Amino acid sequence: MNPVRSLELVIPVYNEEATLPHLFERLDEDLAALAIPWRAIFVDDGSRDGSWALLEAAARRDRRFTAIRLARNFGQHAAVFAGFSRCSADAVVTLDADLQNPPGEVPRLVEALDAGADVVGGWREQRHDSPFRRLASRAMNWLISKATGVALRDYGCMLRAYRIEVVRLMRDSGEISSFIPALAHCFTDRVTEIPVAHAERLAGQSRYSVLGLFSLLLDLLTGFSMFSLRALSAFGLGMAALGTALGILIVILRLALGSDWAAEGVFTLFAVLFVFVGAQFVALGILGE
Questions:
Q1: Rounded to 5 degrees, what angle do the CA atoms 209, 125, 16 make?
Q2: Model pLDDT, residue 119
Q3: What are the start-end ranges of the H helices in the chain?
Q4: Domain-by-domain residue ranges, the chain?
Q5: Which of 54, 165, 172, 275 suits 286 as a labelling partner, its CA being 20 to 30 A distant?
Q6: Is the pLDDT of residue 141 over 60?
Q7: What is the mean pLDDT of residues 29-54?
């Protein structure tokens, strides 16, 4: 495995005017220990505050900074792919602009790549988030691990490192997935995790809402797993089995008790309906796969 000789950071930005000056300083200070050249690619994801003006000024002031502006807010992971389109270094690190994951952890990610990994994820040891965010994160991590077959502690951590070969494969795949870590696992099995620090936000609030987390879950279930289709087929099989059992029970009761209790065939109609609806669900699941 070739050592990493150059590094690029992809940093999506959305309404981070208050944080960006601190981020510029931290990048300069924390990455000074790197023995390889580095560049930061900032992607303004349709910010409505003064973020773009700060990014433009930083790009003019420091040649290591590159600023890209999207026409509107496309979402964090689409912004990351926009940054990927400009990457050419040996390794790429994704980083949030809110400084909850300090840039000082980047050298450790590069060391893990040099140790033989293609993808290195960070897992937040001591999270400074609300109880709801931590609980939702645990549930999402469990679901993603089951869907992808790769059990990682923290799929939600933005601080990740990728070899450029993996970035190119993701970029050329045509996918703009909400689960970039899961997409990366489709192209390599050399994936590892290291513990990283986690801090409170310096300003503003988290961009992820309950709706955003639900959207991520839908992306997982439809993009990286057959779970939803197989669950649909299983539900259909269960309904068809219930209808069949109900039909058998109706026949037995009719023979034992006569026709008076059968409510003029209503129960029989339900049994037949269950069988046919269940068969439709099974067919939809099979066609989906």
A1: 45
A2: 92
A3: 20-30, 51-61, 76-84, 106-114, 131-148, 164-172, 180-184, 210-223, 227-257, 266-288
A4: 7-223, 227-288
A5: 172
A6: yes
A7: 92
